[in-house]
């Protein structure tokens, strides 16, 4: 329904302002979550429709990101490396500029939706918030959890049953974001954007479990773009504040 609404709005916009100029644009941006643990570099491109009061842009986007700073809250990684857990995303979005492009400053609103196309970390271990918790964290680890459960025999004494458990990254089917930006004109057709937004990440993981006398089972990488639970993985969602810094260049399609 959201996609239909946005397309309808855009077609109405084209009908009302179709006589105004249409320009292309290309941009580069860098964002980070508020904890400075996850970062993304994005290349954006598309068309911008201008009128006397505002402009609207339809954009395509490619992004490369990952975990670049280890979360010290969990002491479960001895050999952490920046972007060990990485991903490549592709998608698109829409951007609304509140004032025309001739103004020195304009506030903006931007919505984007992206999906993962590849990651070198698929199948790698990720952190869980607790050995019995279903919550997992978007952060790499080399830790294997030991699960201990007290059972009671006929004599009433505790019997400790022990097995192993690990959580594995499968993919990121969806990353959606909403940004409020502040756009400043540097020179003609060149703009600087500083923004703050909210990002929602839906990523798939697989819970692996085996006994003491067994070897660790392999993880099958499949159903990478499903947003519902299957026997090959579950979905966890994580939302957080994001800061963004970017630069955009616009150009005309008309020959002078």
Please provide a written account of the structure:
The protein is built from 1 helix and 11 strands; from the N terminus they run αβββββββββββ. The protein has a single domain, classed as Porin, CATH 2.40.160.20. The chain is mainly beta. Strands 1-2-3-4-5-9-10-11 form an 8-stranded antiparallel beta barrel. The longest helix is centred in the N-terminal third of the chain and has 16 residues.
Keywords:
Porin; about 260 residues; 11 strands; eight-stranded antiparallel β-barrel; mainly beta; single chain
| CATH architecture heading | Beta Barrel
Counting DSSP H or I runs of 4 or more residues, the number of helices is: 1
Any idea what the shape is?
Answer: elongated
Give the tally of β-strands.
11
Any idea what the radius of gyration is?
Answer: 23 Å
Order of helices and strands: HEEEEEEEEEEE
Helix- and strand-based class?
mainly beta
State the share of residues found in helices, binned by percent: under 10%
CATH class: Mainly Beta
Biggest pleated-sheet summary? 8 strands, antiparallel, barrel
Beta content comes to over 45%
Kindly report the spatial arrangement of strands forming the biggest sheet.
1-2-3-4-5-9-10-11
| CATH topology description | Porin
Overall pLDDT level: 86
Number of domains: 1
**Low-confidence parts, pLDDT < 50 over ≥5 residues?**
none
User: What is the terminal separation in angstroms?
Assistant: 41 Å
């Amino acid at each position: 329904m959201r996609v239909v609404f946005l397309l309808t709005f855009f077609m109405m916009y084209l009908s009302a302002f179709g006589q105004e100029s249409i320009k292309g644009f290309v941009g580069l941006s860098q964002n980070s979550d508020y904890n400075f643990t996850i970062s993304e570099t994005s290349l954006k491109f598309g068309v911008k429709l201008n009128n006397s009061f505002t402009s609207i842009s339809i954009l395509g986007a490619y992004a490369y990101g990952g975990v670049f700073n280890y979360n010290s809250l969990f002491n479960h990684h001895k050999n952490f490396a920046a972007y060990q857990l990485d991903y490549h995303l592709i998608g698109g979005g829409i951007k609304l500029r509140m004032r025309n492009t001739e103004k020195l400053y304009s506030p903006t609103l931007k919505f984007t939706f992206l999906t993962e196309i590849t990651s070198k970390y698929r199948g790698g271990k990720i952190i869980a918030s607790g050995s019995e918790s279903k919550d997992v964290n978007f952060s790499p680890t080399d830790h294997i959890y030991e699960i201990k459960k007290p059972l009671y025999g006929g004599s009433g004494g505790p019997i400790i049953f022990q097995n192993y458990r690990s959580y594995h990254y499968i993919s990121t089917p969806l990353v959606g974001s909403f940004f409020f930006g502040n756009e400043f004109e540097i020179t003609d057709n060149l703009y600087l954007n500083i923004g703050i937004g909210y990002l929602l990440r839906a990523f798939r993981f697989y819970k692996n479990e085996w006994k003491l006398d067994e070897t660790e089972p392999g993880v099958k990488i499949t159903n990478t773009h499903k947003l519902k639970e299957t026997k090959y993985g579950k979905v966890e969602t994580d939302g957080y504040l994001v800061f963004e810094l970017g630069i955009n260049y616009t150009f005309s399609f008309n020959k002078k």
